[in-house]
């Protein structure tokens, strides 16, 4: 079984191609048209949270873990979702994000100052950069970041867990309680002395102030959403460019191609390959009935390689235009961090290429992370030259 999962993690695209040929690919939506329609469908809802709450031990039904899961934006629907999304969007889209360019440049330069000889793009750049950017934006001191990243890993495990063993639930409950203590401390600090950061501004939203449950859960969720996927994107970006020398040469020759190159990485190696939805009534998509209450997998990674929409979908082409990939989702839950993720890649990738004109892979077979639904290399060994 592990062998199959490892193979799938290394290269899911042959499986997607097989699924695409089946008249009924089970609980999976595979084509671009179906995935897009499903992402935008009001009766296909984000329901992992409710699944999980059913399996939490009764004594934890109102504990830190349950409250965290209940309050995360990505698991909400309807008016509650719209209100929370509006509040968070005020600091995550538009001018607020454009202002992060200098910070991203500074952090990238600091990290690149430290590399040399043989190294690993993931460990030295792709992992620490998004973590620094999102913690800085939120206003979390560097000394707390390791703890938050560990809790964020726990959150990913919680979100992809089918059932939770009671002993594990107790450990996770304690971690979420510790996380809430830290956020509570940060909130008291910022109330006393506001700063130019997201936590301060979330505390100052007047009528739209968030409850403490909402604030704590979404601070953690933004750390999670803001670093795992961006790490994968940066690492896949460098790996894919190094594996496609003509595309890399074209980008080096004309740096104005960077925006298209970044979009093509989002399409070609989508960091989030799969998102779940549950039909709240029977729903028909692509002529198939999706039954009420049964989990459906929206295979973003497959949709982004759909030959009906993308010419030569398995070709990495940084000049592809149009490129209507679904890498950030679509519709009501469209990624709130898309602007930030794009900016990080548009700033960091050219800086790497400019500093290291002969950058090359030190190993050609790289291992891929095996977290279900995510896609990114576990390591990208390079010679920083
Ligand atoms: C490479 C980077 C990223 C990728 C590929 C990505 C992808 C996605 C996708 C596909 C969704 C939709 C999930 C669904 O429909 O169920 C999503 C939602 C979300 N993302 Fe991102 N994301 C990235 C970076 C970020 C960053 C940097 C942040 C935060 C600053 C962020 C915050 C969010 C939030 C808050 C949501 C939930 C939106 C909602 O439910 O209304 N993401 N992301």
UniProtKB/TrEMBL annotation:
Q: Name one molecular function that GO assigns to this entry.
A: iron ion binding
Q: Does the keyword Metal-binding apply?
A: yes
Q: Name one GO biological process term.
A: cholesterol catabolic process
Which keywords fit this entry according to its UniProt record? Heme, Iron, Metal-binding, Monooxygenase, Oxidoreductase
**InterPro entries tied to this protein:** Cyt_P450 (IPR001128), Cyt_P450_B (IPR002397), Cyt_P450_CS (IPR017972), Cyt_P450_sf (IPR036396)
Q: Pfam families this protein is in?
A: p450
What family does this belong to?
Belongs to the cytochrome P450 family.
Q: Which PANTHER family does the record cross-reference, listed alphabetically?
A: BIOTIN BIOSYNTHESIS CYTOCHROME P450 (PTHR46696:SF4), P450, PUTATIVE (EUROFUNG)-RELATED (PTHR46696)
Write the protein's name.
Pimeloyl-[acyl-carrier protein] synthase
Which lineage?
Answer: Bacteria, Bacillati, Actinomycetota, Actinomycetes, Pseudonocardiales
């Amino acid at each position: 079984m592990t062998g199959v999962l490892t193979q799938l993690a290394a290269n899911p695209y042959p499986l997607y191609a097989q699924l695409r040929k089946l008249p009924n690919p089970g609980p999976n939506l595979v084509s671009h048209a179906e995935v897009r329609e499903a992402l935008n469908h009001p009766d296909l809802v984000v329901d992992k949270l409710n699944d999980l709450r059913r399996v939490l031990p009764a004594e934890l039904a109102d504990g830190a873990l349950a409250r965290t899961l209940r309050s995360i934006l990505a698991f909400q629907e309807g008016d509650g979702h719209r209100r929370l999304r509006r509040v968070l969007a005020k600091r995550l889209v538009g001018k607020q994000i454009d202002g992060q360019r200098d910070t991203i440049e500074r952090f990238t330069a600091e990290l690149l100052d430290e590399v040399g000889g043989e190294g690993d793009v993931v460990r030295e750049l792709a992992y620490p950069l998004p973590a620094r950017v999102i913690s800085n934006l939120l206003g979390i001191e560097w000394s707390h970041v390791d703890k938050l990243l560990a809790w964020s890993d726990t959150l990913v495990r919680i979100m992809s867990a089918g059932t939770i063993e009671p002993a594990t639930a107790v450990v996770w409950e304690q971690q979420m309680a510790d996380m809430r203590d830290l956020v509570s401390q940060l909130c008291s600090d910022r109330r006393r002395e506001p700063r130019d950061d997201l936590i301060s501004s979330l505390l100052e939203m007047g009528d739209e102030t968030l409850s403490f449950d909402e604030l704590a859960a979404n601070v953690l969720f933004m750390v999670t959403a803001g670093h795992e996927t961006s790490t994968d994107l940066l690492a896949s970006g460098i790996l894919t460019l190094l594996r496609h020398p003509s595309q890399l040469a074209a980008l080096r020759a004309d740096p104005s191609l960077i925006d298209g190159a970044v979009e093509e990485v989002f399409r070609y190696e989508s960091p989030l390959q799969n998102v779940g939805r549950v039909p709240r009534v029977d729903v028909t998509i692509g002529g198939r009935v999706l039954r009420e209450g049964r989990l459906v997998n929206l295979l973003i990674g497959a949709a982004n390689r759909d030959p009906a929409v993308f010419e030569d979908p398995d070709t990495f082409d940084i000049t592809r235009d149009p490129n209507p990939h679904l890498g950030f989702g679509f519709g009501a839950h469209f990624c709130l961090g898309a602007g930030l993720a794009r900016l990080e890649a548009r700033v960091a990738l050219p800086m790497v290429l400019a500093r290291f004109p002969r950058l090359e892979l030190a190993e050609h077979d790289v291992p891929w992370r095996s977290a279900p639904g995510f896609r990114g290399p576990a390591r990208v060994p390079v010679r920083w030259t």
